[in-house]
């Protein structure tokens, strides 16, 4: 059986993703998902004219030769690339985690998706400030949240809320514990010419913030719930595998009648079937129903002619470990 080297695998991945590239090189996409496309030490994302190479090797040195191979080869294959940033996952070096520029001089500062600009700060933390796997969700938001009031919890840099503003939502409130993250969302507003209402960017602990909304009797047509895998504060714990139902139940009193909860769970080791079990617990009282699932793009799942690996857990009925469910809610008394 012939040996397939890394650049051959990446070449195959590029060809499969040709329809995701745009002429102006403003888009964002996962260029190569090594976990499912043949080399689990390497993942490559593209943000406009910057490639971000993630070294997942453990120890990190075991992936350095592969990283060097990618950094040397990729600009010859995609000559419009202006820079390559390398992020190292398994290290205690925060700078290496956040990213080291290995090619070029300037990192991309924005991407354009479905006609909307999203600001970037690619070295802000070990992630890259915009989660590309929720692209299809942003498209759904654009199509469905016009004239709605929206609360985006665990907003991070606010891309889902920015999509809601672009959709024509009546009001969008973005909440996160980290002001720096929300400031990226404000930059996205500026890029699109959207007004910035400071009161709609709220820096607060999730548990405290929800209680404030309850006391004010504020209600929303749509609440987006996209928590981190695990987070603990003095006021509560988020654990996607253990207490996700508690998080969802906490936002239910904020829902308008015939409201929508967008429930996102990206716990890698939580199977799709297990996630459905969690959601069915929420639905047991008859006031919440599962309306639909939103798939993740094939650049994350791999294509029929590029995929050689299997997911750690079976995500079915979802197509990826980032599991997105749209829930419909009713209020008592209606």
From TrEMBL:
Residues 110-267 form the S-adenosylmethionine-dependent methyltransferase domain. Gene3D superfamilies: RNA methyltransferase domain (HRMD) like, Vaccinia Virus protein VP39. The keyword S-adenosyl-L-methionine applies. InterPro entries: SAM-dep_methyl-trfase (IPR019614), SAM-dependent_MTases_sf (IPR029063). The keyword S-adenosyl-L-methionine applies. Keywords: Methyltransferase, S-adenosyl-L-methionine, Transferase. GO terms for molecular function: methyltransferase activity. It holds the Pfam family Methyltrans_SAM. SUPFAM superfamilies: S-adenosyl-L-methionine-dependent methyltransferases. It comes from the Bacteria. One of its GO terms (biological process) is methylation. This is SAM-dependent methyltransferase. It comes from Herpetosiphon geysericola.
